[in-house]
Amino acid sequence: MKTPEAFLAENGLPDARDIDRASLIATFLSEMEKGLKGEPSSLMMIPTFVGVGGKVPAGAKAAVLDAGGTNFRSGIVSIPPEIEDRKNQPMPGAKGPVDVEAFYAAFADEAKRVLPKATAKKIGFCFSYPAEATRDLDAKLVRWTKGIQADGIVGQFVGKELLKRLGGGEIAIVNDTVATLLAAKATECGKTYSSYVGFILGTGTNCAYVEHNTAIEKLEGLDPSGKMIINAESGGFDKAPRSRFDEAMDAKTILPGTNPFEKMISGAYLGPIGLEIYKAAAKEGFFSKAAAERLAGLPALETMDFDNFTAGCKKEGRANPLDDIFSDAADAKMARRLGLPVFERAAVLTAVHLAAFVIKTGEGASSAAPVAINADGSTYYKTRAIPFDETVRRELDDMLVKRRNVHYEITPQVDDAPMVGAGIAAML
Ligand code: BGC
Fold first, then answer.
1. Which are the contacts of 117, defined by CB distance < 8 A and separation ≥ 6?
2. In CATH, what number does 61-174 get?
3. How close is the Cα of 40 to the center of ligand 1, in Å?
4. Which of 90, 153, 280, 372 has the fewest CB atoms within 10 Å around its CB?
């Protein structure tokens, strides 16, 4: 009988050591260049009209809305980072379809609740979906990701529509990667960085970085001496080889074929990939008959359960279906051996992705002024199956420092960075 590793490799999921890092970095960079020129590319490379030179006014308070993956948060943000009057609710459209009016009503209600306590005129809105940015910081939704079901919003200027329902006002909408970059920039003390990358790995994934205006060929009329944050929408990268398991999982998502890279590394998808692997492995006879039968009855697998099981951890107060399915020790061992490579691949691809953006900044030549990577997101910080952050750093040390003499630093996490950064965008 073949080994589980051979079975995975045969189906396109190789050992993480065999991933061709250098060629993927080169492909990422070439897709970025094409996107900046306005040529066909899987990377949208959205100019955000947000720079990194602004100074946050002391004592200001901003009303903030944060439409993330599955959560919609709101509150009042001040700097140094503090959030008052927080509220957290499910993101409209995350649990089933919503119509246009119900969608905006949720945001309008929260805006009305928090606005009276704000001193900044603009509402800060962190909108974590692919959207074209306008010069006045509105956002036109290109498509939903993360399974949100609110079709009527696609193509709309979300800020304009929300303000219409509020009877006026001003708004600054930024992507969560842009917000994370701004939050970390505003809270660094006494450090010298040559450039910045904002990175999210949670339900979804994406990178933003600082680019010279001269490189943004698809936009005319920019100050050539300036720099601007680019929202790459890097989850859309479509040049990383997918396995049969990725393809089978993708076919069952709400928007098959979109965001293939995101679907290989982020929180909404690792569990579902694991389930595809287990089901295919059961057919090949890798599990006992009893486990295979129990597995056949499992309709879905959440990343949290897949991760905890692979890590051999129990989460208090949460029953993990995999503990029952693989109750036999030999089955459990096999399931872990089949699951681990999913996390190892995600960490290597995360590092490849980050390395490409650090290189794209064109900075980091000296260790005295590294490129700052501001990371946020539950998958990055809470994965337990492997030491995720440590693996990414080890990979980056090799890909960037050792091989290219490019210096980087993953900066300390800023709590609630997306909300804080949206507050900053409103204050600037
Ligand atoms: C969205 C991005 C977002 C990322 C991280 C992706 O699904 O398209 O806009 O930055 O998730 O939240």
1. 61, 63, 76, 84, 85
2. 3.30.420.40
3. 20
4. 90
Please say whether the beta carbons of 338 and 278 come within 8 A.
Answer: yes
* pLDDT of res. 57: 85
Chain CA centroid to CA 72, Å: 16
User: Which atom from ligand 1 is nearest to the alpha carbon of 176?
Assistant: 10
Q: So where are the chain's domains? A: 1-46+187-413, 61-174
CB atoms within 10 A of CB 366: 12
DSSP 389: H
Counting from 1 in the atom list of ligand 1, the atom nearest the Cα of 200 is 5
The CATH class that applies to domain 1-46+187-413 reads: alpha beta
Q: How many Cβ atoms from other residues are within 10 Å of residue 53's Cβ?
A: 8
State the DSSP string of 216-260: -TT--S--TT-EEEEE--GGG---SPPPHHHHHHHHTSSSTTS-T
Q: Give residue 289 CA to ligand 1 midpoint distance, Å.
A: 40
**Strand ranges across the sheet with 82-90:** 82-90, 71-78, 61-67, 122-127, 170-174
Instruction: For residue 304, name the pLDDT band (cuts at 50, 70, 90).
Output: very high
CA of 388 to the centre of ligand 1 (A): 20
Domains 1-46+187-413 and 61-174 share a fold: no
* DSSP string across 267-279: TTTHHHHHHHHHH
Residue nearest to atom 6 of ligand 1 (CA): 204
Ligand 1 centroid distance, CA of 5 (Å): 31
Q: pLDDT exceeding 70 applies to what percent of the chain?
A: 100
Q: Please determine, for residue 276, whether its predicted confidence score (pLDDT) is greater than 90.
A: yes
Choose which residue among 48, 176, 263 to substitute to test ligand 1 binding: the one with the highest number of ligand atoms within 8 A of its C-beta.
176
Q: Is 66 in the pocket of ligand 1 (CB under 6 A)?
A: no
Q: Which two tokens stand for residue 318?
A: 């949460």
Task: State residue 185's pLDDT score.
Answer: 87
φ/ψ bin of 405: left (φ > 0), alpha (ψ from -120 to 50), beta (otherwise): left
Judged against a pLDDT cut of 90, whether residue 386 lies above it is answered with: yes
What pairing do the DSSP bridges indicate for beta strands 61-67 and 122-127?
parallel
Is the Cβ atom of 376 under 6 angstroms away from ligand 1?
Answer: no
Report how far ligand 1's centroid is from the alpha carbon of 287 (Å).
Answer: 36
On the question of pLDDT at 1 being above 90, the answer is no
The confidence score (pLDDT) of residue 18 equals 96
CA-only gyration radius of the chain, Å: 22
